[in-house]
Design goal:
Layout: E1 2-10, H1 16-27, E2 31-39, H2 48-51, E3 58-60, H3 68-81, H4 88-96, H5 107-116, E4 124-127, H6 133-141, E5 148-153, H7 156-159, H8 170-175, E6 178-181, H9 184-192, E7 200-202, E8 225-230, H10 239-251, E9 256-261, H11 267-276, E10 283-287, H12 291-299, E11 303-306, H13 321-329, E12 333-336, H14 341-344, E13 351-354, H15 359-371, H16 374-390, H17 393-412
Helix pairs in contact: 1-17, 3-5, 10-11, 10-15, 13-16
Length: 413
């Protein structure tokens, strides 16, 4: 199969779940191209980017130079380089698609067209976030691109994106071939937004289990209990509530240490929260780490806390990957009754779940795990079994490949 993956940014350290699907399809012998709206701006990325030569397979829809003249010159160069000048009907369709009002003509969209116009048709166009689906639909209607449109919905693309424009996916729901929800909660939101139920399949985001070694957790007599969070410093991660909970546990005289891997727009606020709670010596902000460093830190930690919340703008999680990765290594976890989290974490069995923003409940769960470390091994074992059964990237990629093939079979039958 020829498969085009539409991404928001590429490459991105935090989106291993997408990288797993891309490399999984390449491993299965399929011809893969990547299209991203823009470059990530990061100079660090996963080693698979180089080993699979993914940057050579990538084009950017909106790789637009500065300055009016520079933008038009690049358009002309791309038209010549990619042979679009040989397709006057395409150029005519593109221009007339903007209607009679020429103020709607968008030079930026010309770049999107030129990114894909010279490529052979695809069997599948897989949009990795719902917000990319409408663009894929427009490119297909212009006959710039061809392929069955598959759209994954992962969280904010349905919980936040539709808040001010509830009908933004109306045409995509009608004309798209398949919609992949990463959790039951996302499926429910798709149904509420008007997506036909027969077009929705729940397909979890998987993790590469070979990269996360399992080990039972224990601690030395005088060793602090090491608590870890991993995630971007954004509102929906709820990290401020974890900081307050750690502070509460510290006040009881328990020997606790908290590390956070990540960075983001709320970094300054989290530093202020740590200072206000007077636990600067008990908290380490480690910044972003590569996979090797993350797995090492996971292996050295006793508890993972992921206190996800619904942000004020409606942004929600699907099922946080960090919970899957932690459970795969045998760490008991604490999280919230949020999004698809209860589909992964069984309260009292593989970890604990509490209401969103409930600092006292988070504190009680931390104390419970602190005081009863004999629970860690049993919870960790059950967590690993859960991830192996339902979130193994290899199994999920097999399922994804089958879904692609079924679409193509139904198209020709």
């Amino acid at each position: 199969m020829r498969i085009a993956f539409f991404l928001s940014k590429f490459p991105v350290l935090s989106e291993t779940f997408i990288l797993n699907q891309i490399t999984g399809m390449i491993d299965r012998g399929h011809d893969v191209d990547i299209y991203a709206t823009c470059r990530s701006g990061f100079d660090k990325y996963h080693p698979e980017i180089e080993s699979y030569k993914l940057l050579s397979k990538t084009r950017y829809f909106f790789d637009i130079p500065e300055g009016f003249l520079g933008r038009w010159l690049k358009v002309i160069v791309l038209i010549i380089q990619r042979g679009v000048w040989r397709r006057p009907v395409l150029v005519f369709r593109t221009i007339t698609s903007f209607g009679d009002d020429w103020k709607d003509f968008n030079l930026g969209f010309m770049y999107a067209i030129l990114a894909i116009a010279d490529r052979d048709p695809y069997d599948i166009i897989h949009c990795q976030f719902g917000t990319l689906g409408p663009m894929a639909l427009t490119l297909k209607r212009l006959r710039v691109a061809d392929g069955e449109i598959v759209t994954s919905f992962r969280g904010l693309d349905i919980t936040k994106a539709t808040k001010n424009n509830p009908s933004m996916y109306k045409e995509l729901f009608r004309d798209g071939a398949l919609f992949l929800a990463v959790s039951k909660s996302i499926r429910a939101k798709l149904l509420a937004a008007g997506c036909p139920s027969e077009k929705i399949i729940i397909l979890h985001s998987g993790i590469d289990l070979t990269r996360f070694g399992y080990a039972e957790r224990s601690k030395g007599t005088h060793e602090p209990v090491k608590v870890l969070s991993i995630g971007r410093f954004v509102e929906k991660k709820g990290l401020e509530y974890a900081i307050e909970a750690v502070a509460n546990v510290h006040k009881t005289g328990r020997n606790i240490h908290y590390a956070i891997i990540g960075d983001g727009e709320l970094g300054d606020q989290l530093n202020i929260k740590i200072a206000d709670c007077h636990i600067q010596e008990r908290v380490d902000l480690l910044g972003w780490q590569d996979h090797k460093s993350v797995t090492r830190t996971l292996s050295e930690s006793h508890i993972l806390i992921a206190p996800s919340i619904t942000a004020d703008d409606g942004d929600q999680e699907g099922i946080p990957n960090v919970l899957k990765e932690a459970m795969a290594t045998g760490i008991p976890v604490i999280s919230t009754f949020h999004g698809g989290v209860p589909e992964l974490v069984e309260d009292g069995a593989t970890g604990y779940l509490v209401p969103e923003r409930d600092v006292e409940a988070l504190s009680r769960c931390l104390i419970k795990l602190y005081d009863y470390p004999e629970k860690w091994a049993e919870m960790g074992k059950k967590g690993r079994e859960k991830v192996e059964a339902e979130f193994d990237a290899e199994k999920i990629n097999d399922d994804l490949e089958q879904l692609y093939m079924q679409l193509l079979i139904s198209k020709t039958s």
